[in-house]
Amino acid sequence: MALFAPVRDYIETLVHPSAQRDALTAARHRAFIAPRLLGSVVALASFPAYLIARGAPSTIELLIFAWLVVPILTAYFLSRTGRYESAHVLSSLALTGLVTVVAVLTGGIGSFAAIWLVVVPLEAALSASRRVVAIACTFALGAAGVLALCGSLDLLPRPDAGGYAGLAAVGIVSAALYAAGLALGAEALARTSFLLLYAEEDRYRLLARNMTDVIIRHGRDGAVLFVSPAAEPLLGCPTLGLHGHGLFDRVHVADRPAYLSALGDAAALGESRSVEFRVRREAAGGDGRPAPQFVWLEMRCRPLAQAALPADGQDRREVVAVLRDVTDRKRQARALEEARAEAERVSAAKSRFLATMSHELRTPLNAIIGFSDMLRKEPGLMIDAARRLEYVGLINDSGHHLLAVINGILDMSKIEIGKFEITPEPFVPSQVVAGCCDLMALRAHEAGVELHKIAPDDLPELVADKRALHQILLNLLSNAIRFTDRGGNVTISVRSEATAVTFAVEDNGVGISDEDLARVGEPYFQARAAYDRRHGGTGLGLSIVKGLVRLHGGEFAIRSRIGEGTRVTVRLPLDCDRARPAKRASLHPAAGDLPDHATVALAWEDAAPRSEIRIKKSA
């Protein structure tokens, strides 16, 4: 091998630069140059030895040795121009010309040289070009036809059987050896082509097996023809299960139109398409059984190149698609949208807070300032004692209202940050209900609303914060009386269960719309905005109620319908110390417990600060 290395390196330098870019093309050029260059050089080098052995050469022998220069020239032509097919045509033409001349001088079509006409198209077969093979066959057949025609017209000399016997043997042996060389060259080119193809397939196989993206080839009807091995870890099933319409069966029903449209557009329009859809993935559950779940995939598909139209004339291309798992990206996008929505909600809450507080604080402050100015100018205004007492009472009421607003804000802030402390103690809930009704009786009378109480005497003791329960019931009664027109009714009821006590405040007032019902309890949100502006309100009452119920580990629900009234239900455990650490389910009242109104049930997941609220809406 070391002996032939310089020769191999030299032949490598003779390959044209345009052919060196492709390994197979460079191998074809080397296969053309090497045998012609080396064979001709060896044959010419043996010419002196041939002269010594045979003596003076004949005309035919000189012609054959002179022809040995032609392969060198064709090799030089290919090395300089890189025109592979043209070099083969020149080689075929030179070989055909030599065989024809020798055959003419040695007896025509029956000459020993005529067998070389068979070698001409065999040599052209190495070019891998139909055009070159056709030209070589034309040369060989043309030469054979000329020799046969000249022989039939008796234009050629008679062959000397004894004189050319040695040349005939040499011609046959050389033709056989040359044909064997061509066969070996063809085998070498085929082996090189196979190795290159295998190496390319190995590279693509390595890429397909190790890349995370899935490569799929779809047929004209959308059926899967090929799936890369990356699909198995992505979808949790064997690749054979995705062939045909196996992948389509796993696509989410809602995303199937988009999936088919992308494939159809790529096949029919010949354009690239991109689509995102959900696919069912089989994942092992806790018990080891497959637990299906849906993942988001992004598919980029493009049509495959098609050489010719089908027999029916319709251009229905096959499609190659690349699938990529974008579940994390979709999850991040959804989290970003939720964060943006939360930021907008917080911004809206701040705006509502500023607007509500501006209104609520301005009214009592104006009253305090106005009435105090009037008292200060008492001599000029000639205010009597009764009027002075009335002004002092109004100032006191405004101060109490201002203090209540501030206390409500402080309580709401403490509840939100988890700093609101409750002091559980045992007490009978009916006493608290009675006390709240007594406190609100005068206000109900002034509003023209009848206040009813339903509280059995045999209620069990409740371990809770008595002050917080007072605040809960007073807020609910205050809201019910405020939003009930004159002549209406407000009812507060309490009933015991096995492990809890349920309080319900119901009115036949203005009610709450379905749109606002889902947002009831948000801080500073006025569900009945028109009535809030008319009667006054901060939107903090129900927010504080919800927070206090959460701190007790209880549940809160509200049902309402416009023009028919509202029913608020609070369910507190008998012992809040035991119930607070446990997680709570949503409140689902019995079918006959509450009227058939639009419902929002809200339950705190645990007693931790800023727990999330689950909202369920039903009709």
What does this structure look like?
This protein has 619 residues and is of the alpha+beta class. It folds into 4 domains: 5-205, no CATH class; 214-306 and 315-325, PAS domain (Beta-Lactamase), CATH 3.30.450; 334-415, Signal transduction histidine kinase, dimerisation/phosphotransfer (DHp) domain (Helix Hairpins); 421-618, Histidine kinase-like ATPase, C-terminal domain (Heat Shock Protein 90). Helix content is 54%, strand content 16%. Strands 7-9-10-12-11-13-14 form a 7-stranded mixed β-sheet, with helices on one face. Strands 2-1-5-4-3 form a 5-stranded antiparallel β-sheet, with helices on both faces. The protein has a two-stranded antiparallel sheet with strand order 6-8. Helix 5 runs antiparallel to helix 6 (84-105), helix 6 packs antiparallel against helix 7 (116-124) and helix 16 runs parallel beside helix 17. The longest helix is centred in the middle third of the chain and has 50 residues, at 327-376. It is rod-shaped, with a radius of gyration of 51 Å. The chain starts with a helix and ends with a strand. Mean pLDDT is 76; it is low at 529-538 and 581-619.
Outline of the structure:
The protein has 21 helices and 14 strands. The protein is α+β, with helices and mostly antiparallel strands and 619 residues long.
